[in-house]
Write a structure and sequence with these properties.
Rossmann fold; 9 strands; 24% helix; alpha/beta; two-stranded antiparallel ribbon
Length: 230
Amino acid sequence: MRNLWFKGVLLALAVAVAGCGQRVQVEIPPKAPVEGIRSIVVLPFDNVTNDAALGYEIEERIADVLRSSGWYESVQTVRHLVALPPGQPVTLASLLGLDVVAEADAAIVGTATYYFEDVYVDVPYCSGCGRTDVTPTWSVTQTTHVAVRFTARLIETATGRELYAVTAEGEDTDLYTHFSIHRGDNPPAEALVPKPNRQRVPATRSWAIDRAVRQFTRDLLPTYEWRAVE
């Protein structure tokens, strides 16, 4: 009986504690003034960088992020519907003849303004040099760095009013080490040191674009937080 009574007390305490500390997750609306905006089109981005695909990839990433959030009923890209004259920026007014644009609540327009990549190999370094209990080994690290920047605006299609604008930046750095390229106390010959290569640029570039896109879309999306129930 004592054990049953004790277990009952513990159960009652657990229920009381759970009730006092109950928390629920609540949705906080976007910080940007997007009340009433349920459908968005992402127009083809202008691109003034030396990366020909950058504008297109930014458009697609923005659309994917907004679409997957579920906050907007419709998010579409329209590059496949538009014949783009070389070097001519796209404007909202020039595309209002497209039903998908005219019927959307808002449009995103933007420009890819900066792309930078750098790949280099550091000076080889030694592990175990000067020691007699191990064989010295030499390694070398390649650094791959990518940075991107774009400007983008959310415009209300019915009025042409700018609702939101951001200059977004993203960068990523990848470090890859070639281990044990040489053994011995003396540094490796130049022929043994791997040359810089762009093999890791695509993944690094992808992360940089993703970070810039997340910076732009951050205030267009709801956030979630836990709050205590009183």
